[in-house]
Design goal:
The chain has 207 residues and is an alpha/beta fold. It has one domain: Maf protein, CATH 3.90.950. 31% of the residues lie in helices and 24% in strands. The protein contains six helices and seven strands, in the order βαβαββαββαβαα. Strands 1, 2, 3, 4, 5, 6 and 7 form a seven-stranded mixed sheet that branches.
């Protein structure tokens, strides 16, 4: 197995939260953005398969993102580095809540989460030469009971519309969260501890 750059990896994700979290722990990366515009051919489909569980879904999508990005590295003859990919989903009552398309959909999601505990699943993969590793982290998040006015005010901000479940723990929605069990960074979209273990397996030097 060839040695990767001391800290540099490829990140197959458009998420600004994942970029922030990698920078927080000193990981250098180059973005390999995947197309997800529904008006164009997407690189990786994020449609839910029939009868697919939330965990099976998030793990499949994370694997597909990583595999596509690893293929891009080879096809373009890019320098070999580990490829990190991830996917996050929010589920309540076994139903996957994706990214809301509009204000009405965002409000409906928040109404479902209000006063209840839901799950946030983030699956992370690492590809490097003949190595493939994957880990999935699950957190429980309890929302306080939200008033209609709070839901309307939050949905009037830009925050809900690029996030699974229609909220981001690192933003204004922190006001709604009574309790979490699991990983704060995992809820943001990249569980730092678990990701660090994968990167170490891939030979990336941390600290």
């Amino acid at each position: 197995m060839k040695s990767p750059d001391k800290k540099k990896i490829y990140l197959a994700s458009k998420s600004p939260r994942r970029r922030e979290l990698l920078r927080q722990v000193g990981v250098e990366f180059e973005l390999l953005s995947l197309r997800s515009d529904p008006t164009r051919i997407v690189d990786v489909s994020e449609d839910v398969a029939e009868a697919e569980s939330p965990q099976a879904y998030v793990e499949r999508v994370a694997r597909a993102k990583g595999a596509f990005a690893w293929n891009v590295v080879h096809t373009r003859r890019m320098p070999l580095r580990p490829v990190l990919s991830a996917d996050t989903t929010v589920t309540v009552d076994g139903e996957i809540l994706g990214k809301p398309a509009d204000r009405n959909e965002a409000a409906a999601m928040l109404e479902r989460l209000s006063g209840r505990t839901h799950q946030v699943l983030t699956s992370v993969t690492l590809h490097y030469t003949d190595m493939f590793e994957q880990v999935t982290q699950v957190s429980n998040v309890r929302f306080a009971k939200l008033t209609p006015a709070e839901i309307r005010a939050y949905c009037a901000t830009p925050e809900p519309y690029d996030k699974a479940g229609g909220y981001g723990i690192q933003g204004l929605a922190a006001l709604f969260i009574e309790h979490i069990e699991g990983s704060h960074s995992g809820i943001m979209g990249l569980p730092v501890f678990e990701t660090a273990q994968l990167l170490k397996k891939g030979g990336v030097t941390l600290l």
